[in-house]
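Practice problem. Given the sequence and the SMILES for 2-acetamido-2-deoxy-beta-D-glucopyranose, write out the predicted structure.
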Amino acid sequence: MYVLGLGGLILGVLDFVAAAPHRPRAPQYVVNQDRADAVKQAFQTSWDGYYLYAFPHDSLRPVSDGYADDRNGWGASAVDALSTALVMGNWPVVRQILEFIPEINFDNTTTEVSLFETTIRYLGGLLSAYDLLTGPLDGQINETVQVEAILKQAKRLADNLKVAFDTPSGVPDNGLFFNPPRKSGSTTNGIATIGTLVLEWTRLSDLTDDVEYGRLAQKAESYLLHPQPPLGEPFPGLLGSDVNLTTGLFVNGNGGWGGGTDSFYEYLIKMFLYDPDRFGEYRDRWITAADSSIKYLVSHPTTRPDLTFLAMWRNQTLHFVSEHLACFNGGNFILGGLVLDEPSYIELGLALTEGCRATYSSTATKIGPEAFRWQDLSRAPEDVTHNPPPPAGQQRFYDVAGFWITNGGYVLRPEVIESYYYAYRATGDPKYQEWAWEAFVAVNETCRIGSGYSGVRDVNQQGGGGFFDFQESFWFAEVLKYSYLIHAEDAPWQVKSDHTNQFVYNTEAHPVRLAKGREGGRARRSGIV
Ligand SMILES: *[C@@H]1O[C@H](CO)[C@@H](O)[C@H](O)[C@H]1NC(C)=O
Ligand SMILES: *[C@@H]1O[C@H](CO)[C@@H](O)[C@H](O)[C@H]1NC(C)=O
Ligand SMILES: *[C@@H]1O[C@H](CO)[C@@H](O)[C@H](O)[C@H]1NC(C)=O
Ligand SMILES: *[C@@H]1O[C@H](CO)[C@@H](O)[C@H](O)[C@H]1NC(C)=O
Ligand SMILES: *[C@@H]1O[C@H](CO)[C@@H](O)[C@H](O)[C@H]1NC(C)=O
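Answer key:
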């Protein structure tokens, strides 16, 4: 089985080489209407359960038909579902959400606010809906006052969040309390929570003609573009995880493409796509990080040299660990390769996507685990701390699968399907639609429970080993959106392979319109060392 997989990968690479120096042939996309409709049905089921038992709270507890206010009680699932309802053309749900948005009281909450989570889910969801309804879906909603209310609410929310940046360095405190808005008093912040604000806050500035929002996020980002001291950049472009709010200095050199640091790298190339005139330096830093990843981090498990993962690091010591969250990296390398016309990034992105697929196809449920590990003796010597063999109980699993499971949960995360989506849009190869469909069918089978869908405890047990009784809002924003778009008709918001993108997806899968409305021809690579 995996010999065939390896053959496919080599052929795919040769295809690319054969097409050089010209761009690869424009992919031909195939619509799978039945599959797109099945995903729409899952969206409707999830929404109906949420609307009946949880709305206007944040999240549905589908087993107990209850709710949670895990994102400050502003209706997180409704706001996160809006851009998906829009691209699916689900107008009854769109109207329910648009009636609700002006009612949200963004001045008040009784619990701590996360600047990062609020930005990617609420602010990103609102800006995306506004961009879709004033762009390709202009005229679909007659009540223009409802459309204008979306932007007003986005601005009101950001005005309450702004105080987070009021630190000596300008690196924000990720924690806030409201009534009145004030910082939580953290002393450090992580590079993902610092570096995954700049798209949403810059977009808000561009839409409101108020430069302050973008300026705040870009100032914070400047410490990540110019990391100090050297401890903070163990490999060129690859950083530590945390920054001191007083000084803007890195406090460690531990990192990876996983949770806590991941979307900092993701947004570097996405900002360049958003506006190449203003964000050329972000592109340069993404290239530096990508090239270092190829040079230092690419890793193949001892038992499955055909699989490709990226190692994580503590200073310059590699750790052969990864996680579901990191599986966005395939899609991000593919996007970088498309935007920069660099086939080697696409090639690595496809290999990483295939590696993450193996984490799905190897388990009892055919869903990938939250965290996993492998051994790599070509990158580092065997070492009980940094490069251990698998625990005895997982040796047989490792022999076949090429990784062992360190956390078997699945909380309705999107990253593997997200990378299938980019792989499909870059190549048009229908195998990625098959993989996305297999993943959707597996998640539908294992996670469908009660009034919706829930995360499960152990993907390597038939049935998932028990439910968390929780339907995350990103199930609506991300899993259902990417699962749908890969089978759906082409549209202005779909990712393009030929420099005609009109949208860039934030890390919560909300499509944000490019600054100039459209990608501006070939990316310029001049000025890159
Ligand atoms: C804020 O919300 C809480 C909980 O809903 C409520 O008890 C409180 O009165 C509200 N405060 C304001 C100022 O609206
Ligand atoms: C918008 O208004 C037109 C004309 O009044 C009407 O025909 C159409 O159904 C309305 N569309 C929506 C989405 O309400
Ligand atoms: C942050 O920097 C300040 C000023 O140098 C220092 O007093 C503080 O201990 C540092 N905090 C952390 C968590 O490194
Ligand atoms: C990384 O390097 C710093 C500075 O040399 C050192 O203090 C720290 O203990 C190292 N961290 C790890 C995890 O090795
Ligand atoms: C998803 O699950 C539901 C409920 O078990 C089932 O009716 C439906 O056919 C499933 N859809 C797919 C595509 O497997």
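Check your answer against the key. The radius of gyration is 22 Å.
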